[in-house]
Amino acid sequence: MALEVSLLSGWLPWTLESVAVIALLVAVGWRDSRWRTRKLPVIAIGAAAAGLLTARVVLPAAGVTDPLPLSVWLWFGVVVGSLLVLIVGWNAPRRVTGHAATARTVNWRHRGAAAVAATLAAVVCANGVNQFVGYFPTVGDAVAGIENKQVPGEVSLHQLTTKPDPVAQKTGKLVKITIPATPSGFKHRPELVWLPPAWFQKERPALPAVEMIAAEHSKPENWIRIGQAVQTAEHYAARHHGAGPILVFVDPTGGFGNDTECVNGPHGQSEDHLVLDVPQYVEKHFGASADPDKWAIAGFSMGGTCAIGLVTEHPEAFRHFVDISGDEAPNTGDEAQTVANLFGGSQAAYNAHAPLTVMAKHGPYPPITGQYLDGTEELTHIRVAREFIAAGKKVGITSTLTVQPGGHNWQFATQAFSYAYPWLADQLLSA
């Protein structure tokens, strides 16, 4: 099916790139010597300068901290270059075979090709970012995400029934919920809960729970659509007679571009939502255990940073964590930018959310367990994880680091969570 075509590899990305290059070559054309020796070099320099300015100034100022691959910037340059070819070459003379260069204007073939090149290059550039982070693996995923389609298998709270359900007793149920922002007041999007098959048993125990936190630019369902968290949990449940924790796919940001890093501040009371609103609601409406030994945080990228941060700051609420590719501390740029953006300029507030500082100040913790998972390409994150492990060991936090092939993208997060989940479920169910 067309919707199953990969956006990360295969024929579609290659075709888009090839057609974009051909269109650019047609748009540039041969034309006259003035075009070739004067205007084209200026266009090339302009495209390169625009790329350099965006990479070094615009994105850091916007708080984008992860470096994008060179291919993305090359295609960004093609976009700018194509637009400059269209503008500068709109009335540029072209070479006419058998005659000297004339004042005849460039024809619509060049103009149309420049427009096509710019459009396709923009698509390729955007998909280059997508290939880097793995956000939309297929065309269907992109369509579903853009159109905000319902997650497959999702039901509303009103549709949920506690009566015997043969399907739910095999695979569990995914429920869309709206958690009241009480007491946090945090404005957030609808969230989701996956109830394991054990939840539908006649004698239902007070099950453990895991808050699932995605990356910075994300939606609550990303762990489901991209990270395959529900499939991972279902595989575990199938091997353990339906047992498993409740998975809560939370919204820590309230919007795609609102980076809260799971702290209270100018961007909203995200921390209170995750620590207070969510557990209270899940315990009340789904009968989850109120024992902090049976609560965990698992996250990727920003979510990984949130996982270690929330557990070290709130051991009264969470006692287990899975930190996949998390940072050393909340991060929206360099430290000065982060202090200004997330904490209203308060250095003390920043320090109160830096895990190494928090652990040292807190002293001995109740038994806490965790896992750090980083890709072989994430050398900084590996170093940070080792520092956390050493610091945690001094205060009663038992944790390990697993390094697997991969980089900072959803493909790595998916495999890392699949690896860590059985351990996490065992920790929660045996607590």
UniProtKB/TrEMBL annotation:
Keyword set includes Transcription: no
GO molecular function: hydrolase activity
InterPro entries: AB_hydrolase_fold (IPR029058), Esterase-like (IPR000801), Mycobacterial_A85_antigen (IPR050583)
Keywords from the UniProt entry: Hydrolase, Membrane, Transmembrane, Transmembrane helix
Gene3D superfamilies membership: alpha/beta hydrolase (3.40.50.1820)
Ranges that cross the membrane: 12-30, 42-64, 70-92, 112-129
Annotated protein name in UniProt: Alpha/beta hydrolase-fold protein
Originating organism: Kribbella koreensis
